[in-house]
């Protein structure tokens, strides 16, 4: 081993094949829209920690030597069992044992990729000797537990052969040794390795594995389908040949029909001339089961047989071997509709099959037979799971706002109208005003014991897809709870007395009644008030129907709107004074001209014939769009209400869940001043202008203790509690219950419906669910954006689009240093295409490895791939580097 480590000092020695393959796939968790606003803190691994890292279906064991900040993230450097030092992200770690090697021994290893002395060589040899001891012990434990391990699937799989279930490493280890509540590290390592290796039966949690240590257990039907199709492929079964020939016929007809109905409205009918046999349906079901996002931390149970079938059918890009080609094939075969996408399809399939919605946060909960997502909400009243409140429990506390105007400002197409604003002038204080934020009050009807509350807990929030919306609450099941005109309505009101300098001078939280509601829309207010807002860019054109709708505002409403904007501006400037930073980075927004997407029943025994495609618009903007004009008024009011809610809980000593963002880590003392100085007067800072500033942004976290929200400029003694969307976010709903209980029992020793222990568990689960939901939403938007770019390219190729092509003048802004992909023999960079609002992979051939971070380069599109992680690959135009 010493010779091998010394040999790595030779610059002519190529990296091992495993290391090259490990780096062949880019970091799977990277996205500029998420990395600085994440809700799950990245785990730091101290030097001396034993780690297992996985990527690109490569597994390596090693010990952490050091980590360093690179491009806003901590990059771990691990001494692997082969003697090489691999640089990787924290998200690549799947198993860790802290303090595995003493820190003094790690220090003697040095902080270089290759050893610089004999002393460093001997130290690294000793580290690897200890690592080898653990790996050997794990291998022996696997042999010892061979037969018990084989019982795990049969014992824990769902009784319904079509349903998923889940298990954690800890729970499996306790199953093997029920008398031990704390399995040994060796046992845990052995169970962990076994479950990863049995990828046909167990699928590792792709987002938070190191936190959850959870595996999804495949349904027995899926396991049987994999075996059956593998046998068909291996035996060249005639049934498979029959399916392939049928698929070719259906696909050829579908491609012709797609071109003929390219711009027609969406419609479908059943194919009366073709039928699917039971064997066809098994193969189709097998293909559908591949349409679940999976990281390359684990082998793919489908890849060999699926690639064989796809190659036999032909006509689809097999370069990436991902779900993109399968999805397109199933659309062309008439199984899935072309106005679906993989992200929303997986979400729907997951909900119906009972997987992915419930997520554990720690394995000690498994020992008690429950996970936070399924914990019963603690009822305080003798109500059954189908019982609503028989009366308004805080009726005696409600403040009647009388005829005070309440302005509900939202998008034209919005359905869940859950917030309204009022302004109250103070006669003897001309510079101070009361801002009242009125929030819809579903908790006036819905108790936490109701089954709809439990379902909302599992669902976490409303999911907005282009083709449909899945609400948190089925609002039509117990009356309209959205704010509406010409009605007396119950609300929860969060009031802030604001001063001329934008500070909150006083606050009130109370149940209320509002009667004088005016529903208006953002664009109409901006147009009527002549407020300047950053226009959206529409690279592929915009329809006439997208222009702002005019509003007729009387003088009183104009006065209120002007004052609301003045208050919002004051409060915003105060936050900027306190250090608020809003990172600007172009993003894409896809909107549908119609929400009436045909809802297609699952394919029974015959394919469907698809026609047409939805009318979608492709817009590009940045965060200034939501911080200008009427949107600024609403956004700042909602932030103010969340600050008021935090102060309410603070002053009463009632526990609640706060959203906390600590101050970033600055690599140099002057970097903080550089960051704050680089902002404009509104606190905006372009992502590209911060690339050379040594800053490591802290992720958002949910916790009970009061703390700052550094990004928003909210001080530590004030805090931030989300309360403004109880129709769309379960956390807000929960907080409303907590507020009401505190109001009803102000002198109770513990005036809370949810105690610290339950809230702590919920907060941990909320962070992971929100991370998941953000990625689903972003993936959905990104998918349709890439679809529209692809369709534009197709239309230009067919000669259906005249005039200038926006894709001819693209630029890429480089966001990272290069990584060499040995398989493609090219250097790859993370980049953004501002004209499209999309991330991209910039590929440059050998010799172009010195493109600096922040460089702006003219590029052209080389390829476009869809799937769960759609990606445009661009290459520099000649002479641009």
What's the helix and strand layout?
Blueprint: H1 2-7, H2 17-22, E1 50-55, E2 58-70, E3 73-80, E4 85-89, E5 93-97, H3 103-108, H4 118-144, H5 146-150, H6 152-156, E6 165-168, H7 169-176, H8 185-197, E7 202-204, H9 209-212, E8 214-217, H10 220-235, H11 238-260, E9 267-270, H12 278-288, H13 303-313, H14 323-332, H15 342-353, H16 364-367, E10 399-400, E11 405-410, E12 419-425, E13 433-440, H17 451-459, E14 463-464, E15 469-470, E16 489-498, E17 504-514, E18 516-521, H18 522-529, H19 555-577, E19 582-584, E20 587-592, E21 608-611, E22 616-621, H20 629-652, E23 658-660, E24 665-666, H21 669-678, E25 684-686, E26 695-696, E27 701-703, H22 730-744, H23 756-798, E28 810-814, E29 819-821, E30 826-833, E31 838-845, E32 856-865, E33 871-876
Parallel strand pairs: 10-17, 11-18, 19-25, 31-33
Antiparallel strand pairs: 1-2, 1-5, 2-3, 3-4, 6-8, 7-8, 9-21, 12-13, 13-16, 14-15, 16-17, 20-22, 23-27, 24-26, 28-30, 28-32, 29-30, 30-31, 32-33
Helix pairs in contact: 4-8, 7-8, 10-12, 10-13, 15-23, 19-20
Q: Helix count, per DSSP? A: 23
Number of domains: 4
The class by helix and strand makeup works out as alpha+beta
Instruction: Give the overall pLDDT as a whole number.
Output: 87
Number of strands: 33
Coarse shape: globular
What's the main sheet like? 5 strands, antiparallel
Supply Rg: 29 Å
Distance between the termini: 43 Å
What fraction of residues sit in β-strands? 15-25%
Contiguous uncertain segments of 5+ residues: 32-41, 355-381
Q: Order of strands side by side in the largest beta sheet?
A: 4-3-2-1-5
């Amino acid at each position: 081993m010493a010779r091998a480590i010394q040999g790595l000092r030779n610059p002519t020695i190529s990296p091992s094949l495993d290391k090259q393959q490990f780096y062949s796939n880019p970091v799977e968790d990277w996205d500029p829209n998420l990395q600085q606003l994440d809700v799950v803190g990245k785990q730091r691994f101290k030097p001396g920690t034993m780690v297992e890292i996985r990527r690109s279906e490569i597994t390596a064991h090693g010990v952490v030597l050091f980590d360093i900040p690179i491009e806003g993230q901590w990059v771990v450097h691990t001494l692997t069992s082969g003697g090489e030092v691999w640089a990787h992200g924290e998200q690549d770690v799947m198993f860790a044992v802290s303090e595995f090697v003493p820190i003094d021994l790690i220090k003697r290893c040095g902080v270089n990729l290759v050893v610089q002395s004999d002393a460093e060589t001997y130290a690294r040899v000793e580290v690897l000797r200890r690592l080898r001891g653990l790996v050997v012990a794990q291998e022996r434990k696997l042999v010892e537990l061979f037969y018990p391990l084989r019982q795990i699937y049969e014992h824990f799989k769902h009784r319904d052969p079509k349903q998923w279930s889940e298990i954690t490493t800890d729970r499996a280890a306790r199953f093997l040794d029920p008398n031990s509540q704390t399995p040994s590290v060796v046992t845990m390592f052995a169970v962990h390795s076994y479950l990863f290796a049995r990828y046909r039966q167990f699928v590792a949690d792709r987002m938070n594995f190191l936190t959850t240590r959870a595996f999804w257990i495949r349904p027995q039907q899926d396991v049987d389908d994999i075996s059956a199709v593998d046998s068909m492929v291996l035996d060249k079964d005639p049934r498979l040949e029959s399916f392939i020939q049928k698929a070719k016929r259906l696909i050829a007809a579908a491609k012709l029909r797609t071109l003929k109905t390219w711009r027609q409205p969406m419609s479908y009918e059943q194919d009366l001339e073709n039928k699917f046999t039971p064997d066809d349906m098994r193969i189709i079901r097998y293909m559908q089961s591949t349409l679940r996002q999976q990281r390359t931390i684990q082998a793919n149970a489908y890849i060999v047989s699926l690639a064989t079938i796809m190659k036999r059918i032909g006509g689809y890009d097999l370069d990436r071997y991902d779900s993109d080609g399968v999805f397109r094939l199933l659309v062309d075969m008439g199984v899935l509709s072309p106005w679906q996408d993989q992200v929303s399809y997986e979400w729907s399939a997951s909900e119906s099959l009972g997987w992915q919605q419930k997520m554990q946060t720690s394995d000690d909960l498994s020992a008690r037979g429950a996970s936070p997502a399924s914990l019963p909400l603690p009822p305080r009243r003798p109500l059954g799971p189908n019982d609503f409140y028989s009366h308004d429990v805080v009726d005696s506390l409600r403040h009647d706002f009388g005829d005070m105007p309440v302005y509900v400002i939202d998008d034209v197409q919005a359905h869940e109208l859950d917030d309204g604003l009022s302004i109250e002038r103070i006669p003897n204080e001309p510079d101070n005003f009361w801002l009242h934020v009125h929030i819809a009050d579903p908790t006036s009807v819905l108790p936490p014991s109701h089954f709809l509350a439990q379902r909302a807990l599992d669902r976490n929030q409303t999911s907005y897809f282009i083709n449909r919306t899945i609400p948190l609450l089925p609002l039509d099941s117990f009356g309209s709870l959205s704010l509406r005109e010409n009605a007396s309505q119950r609300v929860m009101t969060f009031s802030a007395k604001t001063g001329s300098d934008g500070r909150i001078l006083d606050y009130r939280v109370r149940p209320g009644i509002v009667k004088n509601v005016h529903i208006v829309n953002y664009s109409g207010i901006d147009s009527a008030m002549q407020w300047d807002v950053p226009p959206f860019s529409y690279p592929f054109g915009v329809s006439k129907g997208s222009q702002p709708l005019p509003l007729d505002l009387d003088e009183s409403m104009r006065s209120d709107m002007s004052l609301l904007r003045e208050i919002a501006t004051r409060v915003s400037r105060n936050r900027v004074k306190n250090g608020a930073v809003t990172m600007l980075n172009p993003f894409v927004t896809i909107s549908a001209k119609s929400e009436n997407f045909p809802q297609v029943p699952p394919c029974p025994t015959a394919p469907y014939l698809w026609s047409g495609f939805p009318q979608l618009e492709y817009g590009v903007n940045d965060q200034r769009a939501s911080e200008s004009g009427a949107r600024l008024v609403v956004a700042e009011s909602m932030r103010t209400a969340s600050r008021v809610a935090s102060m309410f809980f603070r002053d009463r000593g009632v526990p609640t869940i706060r959203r906390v963002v600590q101050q970033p880590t600055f690599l140099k003392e002057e970097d903080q001043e550089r960051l704050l100085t680089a902002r404009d007067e509104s606190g905006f800072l372009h992502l590209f202008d911060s690339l050379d500033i040594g800053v490591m942004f802290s992720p958002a976290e949910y916790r009970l203790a009061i703390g700052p929200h550094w990004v928003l400029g909210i001080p530590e003694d004030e805090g931030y509690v989300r309360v403004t969307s109880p129709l769309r976010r379960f956390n807000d709903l929960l907080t409303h219950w907590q507020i009401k209980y505190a109001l009803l029992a102000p002198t109770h020793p513990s005036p809370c419906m949810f105690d610290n222990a339950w809230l702590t568990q919920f907060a941990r689960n909320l962070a992971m669910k929100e991370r998941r939901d953000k990625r689903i939403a972003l993936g959905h938007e990104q998918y349709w954006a890439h679809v529209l770019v692809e369709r534009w390219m197709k239309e230009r190729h067919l000669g259906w689009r005249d005039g200038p092509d926006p894709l001819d003048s693209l630029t890429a802004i480089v966001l990272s240093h290069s990584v060499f992909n040995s398989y493609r023999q090219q250097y790859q960079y993370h980049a953004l295409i501002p004209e499209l609002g999309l991330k991209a992979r910039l590929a440059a051939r050998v010799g172009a490895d010195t493109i600096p971070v922040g460089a702006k380069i003219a590029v052209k599109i080389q390829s476009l791939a869809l799937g769960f992680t759609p990606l445009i690959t661009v290459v520099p135009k000649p002479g641009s580097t």
